[in-house]
Amino acid sequence: MTTLLHRPTDPLEAEGASRLVGAKAARLIEAAAIGAPVPAFFVLTTALFAERRRRGKLPDELVSALDEGLVDLARVTGHSFGSAESPLVVSVRSSPVESMPGMLDTVLDVGLTRAATPALARRLGDPIAAQDVRRSQLESWGAVDRRMARTRCDASAAGRVAASRSAASRERPTLEAL
After folding, report:
1. Mutual orientation of helices 150-165 and 127-145 as an angle, nearest 10°?
2. What's the Cα-to-Cα distance from 59 to each of 2, 47, 63, rounded to whole Å?
3. Which of 8, 66, 115, 149 is the most buried (most CB within 10 A)?
4. What is the pLDDT along the chain (178 residues), one digit of tens a residue?
5. What is the pTM of this model?
């Protein structure tokens, strides 16, 4: 079985890199290799999708590859996926071999649950920003998984934020108010 997981520290030959990890991921790996500041990441290789095509389903090894990648991210960041106290929040992005702007979906802020949002608010020092990240997560998930219009979340969240800011006290709203 071909490797499904690629870490930024794994060797990657420049020739054919895009075929293994996709163009966007190859550029990110190159940036990390020269010491540019990039967030911690891992890549599920294009072999995953070749296996899916060949088998007609996702390979059983996908779960262990994801677990490995998330354990690595937790070690590097000090945050844990699924934790309400110190959540690891990730974005899932596509990286085709050739750039296809606007053609593939991105799911943002995976791992930011309702229970984890207060911890993010404490980390950021801003409950409104944390709530906006949560809205972004729900919006991107709804758009990708349910084909829900992104503006549906925007209008609802904007109304709640505007209402909370127009209160006489002008205090920042609590997460519960949003």
Report:
1. 160
2. 11, 10, 9
3. 8
4. 468 888 888 887 767 778 888 888 888 888 988 999 998 999 888 888 888 888 888 888 889 999 999 999 999 999 999 899 999 999 888 776 666 565 567 788 889 999 999 999 999 999 999 999 998 888 888 877 767 766 655 566 556 655 655 553 445 444 444 4
5. 0.72
Q: Spell out the domains of the chain, with CATH numbers in brackets.
A: 1-78 (3.30.1490.20), 84-178 (no CATH)
